[in-house]
Amino acid sequence: MNKYQEILQGLIDQLGDWFLDEEKLRWGRMTKELYPYEKLFSPIRVNSITIKNRIVMGPMGNISMAEEMGRPSNKMIKYFAERAKGGVGLITTGLVPVSHYIDPTVTEKGDRSYFPRIDKSRTVFAGWRDIAESVHAYGAKIFIQLTPGLGRVGSPECLIKKFKLPVSASWNPNFYIPSIPCRPLTDRQLRRIIKNAGQAAADAKAALMDGVYLHGHEGYLLEQLTNPAFNRRKWGKFSNWQAFGTELVREIRRRVGPDYPIMYRIDLSLALNETYKEKMDSVKSLRLFKSERTVEQTLEYMKNLVKAGVDMFDVDLGCYDNWWLPHPPNSMPPGCFLAVSKIVKDYFEKSNIKSNKGLEVPVVAVGKLGYPDLAEKALRENMCDMIMLARPLLADPEWCNKAYAGRVEDITPCIGDQEGCINEFIEGGHPQCSVNPRTGNEDLYGEETPAIEKKRIAVVGAGPAGIMCAITLSKRGHNVTLYDKNSRIGGMLLPGSIPKIKYEIANYLNHLEHQVRKAQNTYGLKLELNKEASADLLKGMGYDIIICTTGAKEKKLNIEGIDLPHVVTSINLLQNPELTEGKENVLVVGGGAVGCEIAYWLAYEKNKKVTVIEMLPHFMKGVCTANRGHIIHYLERKGVKLLNCTRLKSIKEDKVLVARKLNNVPDPYAVWQPILPENIENPFEKKIGAEEQEFEIKADLVILATGLVPDDSLYNECIKERAAQSVYNIGDAFSPAKVFEAVKAGYLLGRSL
Asked: 567-706: which CATH topology?
């Protein structure tokens, strides 16, 4: 094992228990110990342009933000303008394919596109010029991200709807349904894609975009063609895995001239061998990819890309098959890939690699860098030249301006749940954000306007929905009182922030407390804690409007032994961690997000032997693939036993009786492919049999994580008693949901009354 392999293996191995190192955890806090951020807000030159600071807005797919012909819509224009206004130096767009009519996955049936396009000449040019001009108005630059296609990570629906196989560099399995093969593109088709990319780059330049940005990482088609893991072609020009990428860059450089910046997104390694180890031999869909590009090969390739015309890089690890690496979720460490950018930067300096303009080639660091102190530290310690922020700029488009002014406490932190951003793509939506309801809706929701008629309003329940609603209402001039029965605001965020891997929830909770204090001081918001607000009390106060956000309560199971003293709910356990003392074998009932995160906490922080049972075929169903993959993979590494298709039958003093299905039960640890959404059917999936086997599991502590039901009792009572002229019910009190739905509901109601 060489030094690079050792670095990678060490990095991958520590992603399970990194949070036990308090120093690493500290850098994930929203502090301002290094303010003023002189490095972060210093200019940098790339080719012929100067970027005003070191902050790059990372690419996040602008899916469903363009018209069907591919022209950027007003939604997309407003979205980018908001981030430019917020102070970011360089904006990069999401994927813009240049392989229409070649890669059947980049368009839907009827040539309708859910991606923006730039390959239709004048019908789309105006949209790109509008974006460029709106961004330039605030002194920011913008690069368009071009992709040769999706390849094996594109939707397999093209087989059913277009009767065409997905494509790739070689015969590779489709990521979503490995039973579907992806056919190799011909050399002629690849040459056409290269020509298309050159034309798209020339068009982007004409449309006032400041540079082009090639999407060469994460296992998309450019990665498939430039990595021996996927490119196993035996003949033809492109059997040399470097050929396609370098030819692509040369063609773009030929079409745009010497003064136009070219950026390249690359992964230093897929890190599949480091992630899955022996499974690379045993899992059929992984076995093909053992010959992935080494770090040494990547560095050599990057040197050749610079010779071909690349001016700057951003670099990370991973691909779709270990999705949590290129899409680091809330459970991964802050600055998770700084060691990766440092490797590249050191190599460029040691090898004296310069761009064709004779400039140093900037290395952009990526991966959970939305903490101003950490971003500044990375630059000061020469770990990178620029910082890429993606989801943090969804959470707060004013991140840069606030950091520059030292208002770090006012930055709305990303919580890393990926529900409003990445998961929205899977559900067919556009980019949104769990903690910022205006993201992706800037065209619909402008700044809040003062209320025409000021009203007395009670908001009951200080969880995310209630807080967002109360603050929005008070900002608009209403007389608002926020009630909560607890001594601290936050609702379900309070127990949810206790595990160390939930440090971003803790950040968000602190932010909400700060915002409530500001609303109290600035807008007169009243906060009543430790107060149970009944219908009689509220009616007696004479409120015009009552808004119930009273949350949810845990389900009660009708199981023998459910009332035994060693049986507790997940919320009760988090609130009273001393209940784990003296316990050795712990059973968690329920394998959703809460159950698996509880198991993680118990295994890593409390050193317990943990088993999790789940009735469904898959654990953490409905959770974003990256979040799910990271948790489950490292639960397996820790020895946590996951039993799917398993139901609880009875509980005794030191054991439980369960029944598990026997036939065609999926591997619960299979995180190298995703769970398909409910509306997409896998025709090759085997049906799970009905036959069961009963057996006992040792358990001296049983945790119930079986879900929630709405606690709408106050709402119903207020309606019955006619406690106010208008009564509303939102958040978990309406339907148990995620932060994403709760925050949006609170905001929309708050701005409408």
From this structure: FAD/NAD(P)-binding domain (3.50.50)
